[in-house]
Amino acid sequence: MRIVSLNAWGGAMYGALAEWLPGCGADVLCLQEVTRTAELSGWTSFSDAERQLPQRANLFSDVGTLLVRHQGSFAASDAGPVVDGTGTSHRQDFGLGLFVDERLPVIGQVAEFVHRQFIDHDEWPSRDRPRLVQGVRVIDRPRQRTVAIVHLHGLRDSAGKQDTPDRRKQSERL
Q: What SS3 state is found at 143?
């Protein structure tokens, strides 16, 4: 069983992802920083106090189109404003996506918060955003076993990837 986990950066590098993903052989794909904007496709612009980034309007749907033999599950950690190419503001959900090959029966799913709770932001904060964990349990028939796959998006720290007290708490809740 091939399990792939990626930080999708909101689809900022969607061209390279779309080219690579169909042939990567993932039986289970775990994506962090997944966007979903109802009834919108194409590109949007995200901004907070520290940066402005291009994002896919609905990366969850885009990936689902690329992985037609996978069943997808999206879990929103928070939501906030993005702007499309015409300058129109939209409400975008942000979170985790999990895609499981249809040959692997899903026998359990979970999504739980490990830091804060869902927030619908008026403006995106640059720190201390909610985080959740998403998991799935599947049947691996060739090996006659069940497999649990769990992923999360770690807390952002502008100083780097070292452990912090909040990251430790997040891990302990997991």
A: helix
Name beta bridge partners: 31: 6, 97
Amino acid 39 reads: E
Whole-number Å distance between alpha carbons of 26 and 21: 8
d(CA 70, CA 24): 13
Question: pLDDT, tens digit, for every residue of 45-93?
Answer: 999 988 999 999 999 999 999 999 999 999 999 999 999 999 999 999 9
pTM of the model: 0.92
Residue 62 CA neighbour count, 13 Å, CB half? 25
Give the Å distances, CA to CA, from 12 to 9, 39, 58, 82, 173.
6, 19, 12, 14, 30
């749907």: which residue's tokens? 61
What distances in angstroms separate CA 151 from CA 6, 79, 94, 148, 156, one per listed residue? Answer: 10, 20, 15, 10, 16
Can you tell me the distance from the alpha carbon of 86 to that of 13, in angstroms, rounded to the nearest whole number?
21
